[in-house]
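Handoff note, outgoing to incoming analyst
You'll be picking up this chain. Sequence as last confirmed:
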Amino acid sequence: MTTPVSERQSPETPVDELIPSVDEAPGSRPVAWPHRHLLDVDALTIDEIETVMRTADAMRQVLARPIPKVPALRGRSVTILFYEASTRTRVSFEVGAKNLSADVVNIAAATSSVAKGESLVDTVRTIEALGADILVIRHPVSGAPYLAASVFGGSVVNGGDGWHAHPTQALLDLYTMRQRLPRGSVAGRKVVILGDVLHSRVARSNVWALTAAGADVWLCGPPTLLRGFDAWARAGAGGRRFTVTSSVVDALRDADVVMALRIQKERMTGGLLPSLREYATRYGLTRERLSLARPDAIVMHPGPMNEGVEIAPAVATGAQSVIADQVANGVAIRMALLYLLAGART
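Most recent structure output, in case you need it:
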């Protein structure tokens, strides 16, 4: 649990003083963040991930204040450009940026010039010309944020691209696990990601983040929704080792963390699943299946949920669920990343 702000720092303490330096030396200057963009977590070292976690701790202290606002990004402009529907990610970026005193512009592609045929490159150049310093983008096409980063003069944050990556979700998931697991570490812990792995950008980014942190990662689902992951696991790309299985029993047995994934019907072609009912019967996270995990296992879901399909309502709202914590921690993590990226540009 976080120590109350009143016992650690005064409400007026600048956010810079809440964030420890990398080497923990008293009075030393924090190491500058080396990345101009955040496009996926595979570009981050474990030390850089730790920096994000520590900065998020500081942001949680800010959020615990009576007025959760600091001037860290005063004078900076953050533009949020989403080509897909979103609640959690979009709103948490907006809330986080405003808590840091940034000027925030929200653009929904459906109501912008994109609807008239404007290209992504032209849209990004227009946003930059209008004064944006940081661009948060979500796009249905994998790789779109990389294209945006190639033409944008500021910093680009990937808010989710196609099936490819969702780095801020992976970082907030890791943060939530560390917060709720004994000893505050995922090293050696069995973390199961269960569901539509094939179409999940969350699963891909979590593989990078969790294996970097030493977790024992298991991916589980129907064989048709695991295509390509066996080859990745065998190749051990980047030194990442994880287990892929279609056996729910093997995956859930003695698990410390179980993360259910939404069945993404909008991304599926025919033949991948016989029916949602059959999926729920064979792979849905029920109380009975959860009993295979450790008694103190935590339940997660990146949202939005299809209750009764990939997760039973009683599990989603049960005592082991930390889904609401994930949502709340999303604000702290995204504040931390905006703060670090703004510092990288100074």
